[in-house]
Write a structure and sequence with these properties.
By secondary structure, the chain is of the alpha/beta class. The protein has one domain (2-226): Alpha-Beta Barrel (TIM Barrel), CATH 3.20.20. The chain has seven helices and eleven strands. It has helices at 21-30, 44-50, 57-75, 103-109, 117-126, 165-175, 205-214; strands spanning 2-8, 35-38, 41-42, 80-87, 96-99, 130-133, 151-156, 178-182, 195-198, 218-220, 225-226. Strands 1, 2, 3, 4, 5, 6, 7, 8, 9, 10 and 11 form an eleven-stranded mixed sheet that branches. Helix 1 (21-30) packs parallel to helix 3 (57-75) and helix 3 packs antiparallel against helix 4 (103-109). The two termini are 18 Å apart.
Length: 229
């Protein structure tokens, strides 16, 4: 089976990450992945600490996308690198994994930090993206109305937080939500070999959306393989 990682952070775009794109991709090649989705933080932190204060949004987006572009260039076809996002707005501490976004959408999206997920969900859906709440039962998270989500991250294997995956799995089943698993990679210490498993390699965002929507995948926490449904 082919393994895909759906939750990866790199430095410097995510200030909580400690590995640059090239080293990150090398780690995933070494661990036998076929696909990696770069989901750096699109958050107030990006604008408050990483991007120079005199940048307009498009300049900020170019800085944000640079890590993804570097990762894809370094991969050079040895592993598929897709563009994603982990979004946090100013209203609360919630994080949302957005899959199916391309560079042009991100460049034209504008600064959405003062909006809510209720306002943004239809915007992402209009471009065919899927919205998952990341680690929804971690401390400081607010559970989002399932009507404003396509699913949740029922398996988050970040080593520095308790994501309460058991509760997330029950919640997903109760509401019939799509689920994803991810390592929440920030550096090599976070490499857990988690992700989703498919019969064919995922080579594009459109294919990723089809796989997730159709539930044609299994998940792994790095040691065991599960049917999430």
């Amino acid at each position: 089976m082919f393994k895909s990682e759906l939750h990866v952070h790199t430095s410097p775009a995510s200030n909580c990450a400690h590995t640059e794109p090239e080293e990150t991709i090398e780690h995933y090649i070494e661990h036998g992945y076929s696909t990696v989705v770069i989901t750096n933080h699109m958050s107030p932190t990006l604008f408050d600490t990483i991007v120079p204060q005199d940048c307009d949004y498009r300049q900020a987006a170019e800085i944000y996308l640079d890590d993804y572009r570097r990762a894809k260039k370094y991969a050079n076809g040895r592993i598929t690198v897709l563009c994603g996002m982990e979004l946090r707005v100013r209203k609360n501490m919630n994080d949302y994994l957005i899959y199916g976004l391309d560079e042009q959408f991100i460049l034209n999206m504008g600064n959405v930090m003062d909006k809510t997920i209720k306002q943004l969900y239809p915007v992402f859906k209009s471009c065919g993206a899927l919205v998952f709440q990341a680690h929804p039962f971690r401390n400081n998270m607010t559970v989002t109305d399932p009507k404003l989500l396509d699913g949740i991250e029922a398996g988050n294997f970040c080593t520095t937080h308790d994501s309460r995956n058991d509760i997330a799995a029950v919640w997903a089943k109760k509401f019939g939500m799509l689920t994803v698993y991810g390592s929440d990679y920030h550096n090599s210490d976070y490499m857990r070999n988690a992700g989703i498993l498919t019969d064919r390699p995922i080579t594009s965002n459109s294919q990723l959306i089809r796989v997730l929507s159709s539930k044609r995948f299994k998940v792994t926490d790095g040691t065991e393989v599960f049917d999430p449904y």
